[in-house]
Amino acid sequence: MSYALLGDIAFDVLNAPTALDEKHSATYAQHDVLSGRPRLQAIGNELTELTLNLNLHYMLGSVDGRYQELILAKENQQALALVLGFSQFKGYFVITDIQSQALYTDGRGNTLARDVSLTLKEFVGNQGQSLLGLALQLGANSPLGALLPAGAVKAINQTKALITKGVQLYHQTKRVINDVRNTVTLIKTLAHDPLAVLTQLPFALDSVGKAIGPLGEMLGLSNSFNALTKGIAGAQYFMRDIAEIADNLNVFESAFKQGLNDSELSEWFDVGVKALDDCDAALERLGEPVTQMTAWIVLREDNNEVRDE
Question: How would DSSP label each residue in 8-47?
């Protein structure tokens, strides 16, 4: 479930491609000439138009009350700050069109959930008093944070921190393995010079050693990571592949340490190269999941199950 804020009205953004449509236009004057094609002269950019599919749910406050606030904002041509994902400020907009459908009501006729489609147009000018400063802060003091249970805010922050740590670790490990791969390639070209091979081995071992520590630290957080990221795209198999990379780097380290006592590129070298190849395969598998996890960080797409905790 992804939360957003329009003015002081909190809502859920539906997880669908039609949740947020944007239109950006520019105006040009066309000047005809005696011969040849017409010339264009830029006049300026048009106001941005957005179409939002929203879900008003009783767990974020009165559905009917917030729906009436949207209608009142349209009637008063009120400019509202739009914030997505807790911190992505889109700008100020006025509501030009509202379409709605009640999904669920209780026995007294109160609406429990309502789908709303809003057409917004960018507002340029003096906005007067706004909620922008508060809306950009996630926490108990923000209009949106105040609507969420303290446990939900804490869980969302913990989840974001763990996923950010995982994504950073992936990129750091990838850089280390690329560096080690270059060193291994150099060692292979020096096979005829045992002394030169010995001078290169410490570089490879030092790099791998620096990668194994952070990987082990991340694996120590496996239980928390798996519990908090349940249902988040890309996170399901992250720890499994991280564990495989850590295991293969340990194999590489053990094999290349043998090389310190055996400068000939014998079995230890082949074992280390095979372990490095297996690391590359795991990193390749992680490429798409890490992209999805990165997108979650950007969009703050917290899962229903995380929020319920």
Answer: TEEEEE-SSGGGEEEE--EEEEEE--SSSS-EEEEEEEPP
